[in-house]
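#random but structural
TW: two for the price of one
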Amino acid sequence: MTIDIVIPLLAAAVQSGTPILYATLGEIFTEKSGVLNLGVEGAMILGALAGFLVSRFTGNPVIGFLAAGIVGGMATSVHGIVCLWFQGNQVVSGLALTILGAGLANYLGTSYVGLAAPGFDPVALPFLSEIPALGKIFFSHDPLVYLSYLIPPLMYLFLTRTRIGLGLRAAGEYPAAATAAGLNVVAYRWFGIIVGGFFMGLGGAYLSLAYTHLWTTNLTGGRGWIAVALVIFAFWRPGRAVFGAYLFGSIMALQLRLQASGTQLPSSILLMLPYGLTVFVLVLSSWKKGTSEEPAALGVNIEPAD
């Protein structure tokens, strides 16, 4: 492959990986509090629809982007009610959220399929976009991509250097000890669920406001499930999630380019490439469990106080 092919492919990988990155960071934040949320796909697609509709009717994609995050947080709050109030099974609740979100979004969005909405267009950053190779790959995108560059380091600093971030991690590592230390573990878990859902909604909004600028049925296309697997691949580390998201983005970009080039490979094989990589990543990650930062109490409900 020549440099003229590689650079556009890597630039497309960054763009394709950005919605997955937002969703993965949201799931990492949620799981750090000790709550497993398999409803990422549902929160993403509801956020995608909310962002599209608000942007379409207000003409302001920024408001649409923020509305998507709010709707994502509201969607995951349903998961919080089931798991934190009623002590329901976190796996079952997450799966139900995915089914509910996908069905509701596709139903409400039926009349808008194929319609466009104001969105975010590429804006080359002065000077940085002129850097050979790197400028085209990283600094010739839309503002939502640039925002995604800032979130992982800020999330890392929040989780490791702030009182609230350390309390959130304590709620996920050893809730009994956190409670004994005077922390409100339920409140921290609510915080993790809602903020995590906010990022998931932003990931969905990227698809409808920046990646496509339109609404279509099943817009997320399984990216929420990839994000769940990517959390494991990233060992619950925000920085490593960046590499993983762009890795998956590169596979998606390659898949689209192979289809456009008229390759003889069956389309079903090309479509399964990202998900085949997901399975491979999970197997690979299972060999290095000792190096992960998986919360010790992940998926464990808190017994209601007497």
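TW: number two ↓
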Amino acid sequence: MSAERRGNWMQSFTGVQVWPLDPRIEDFRIEDIAHALACQNRFAGHAREPYSVGEHSVRASLAVDVSTCRTDDQRRKVRLAALMHDSPETYLVDLPRPIKRDPSMWGYRAAEERMATVIESWLRLPHGAFEWAAVKRVDAVMLVTEARDLLTIPPAPWGHGQGAKVTPLAETIVPWGWRETEARFLARFNELVAGDEARDPRGLHYHACPACYRNMPCTMACTIEADLTENGVDFGSHARCDECGEEPADVD
């Protein structure tokens, strides 16, 4: 019998039990993180159009300054930390800065720190990687860029409570949408871990439902070698999600 966990559990996208107040390495799936962050809006939904934490994260990993890094592995780790710095919000949700930094929210911040520490270990990153100076700076750069491109005219000048005074990116942000964001997040993760990250310890794999695109955990006894197509997606009937039903039979 497993040791009792602190607090109650929640169900993840892929059907995993996760205890947000007592996280463990075996709880995490990159599919859960990519999907949840792609569906979770920045600015508590107050942007002019939906813009997700997942897109913010991918863009941060592409924009982070790695000029002071001496090796390719250092550059990879900084970019990975930038991609995953908001990953605790997969389970703890994104709180606007004025709420998160209020003294009354110390319990939330403690839970976020615990979650970040365990995820850093899961990613084989040093403790505190999500707080590296380069990551914090690109987070601030993304914030002011997003505010410029996605929020309405501010009702008052921004101060430290709203965001750091840094120079925004030159490019204009045009939101991707959650499906593209999820795909880009997973692709960026795969690029940065280079096969070094252990996936689902239960040996599960995932199929994209051809009808609605949802990435569903496989519950059948298929194998990568025997039953999946060249691009890793099986479009057979069991790849479809429950809502879409079985794939219709071919008609001659």
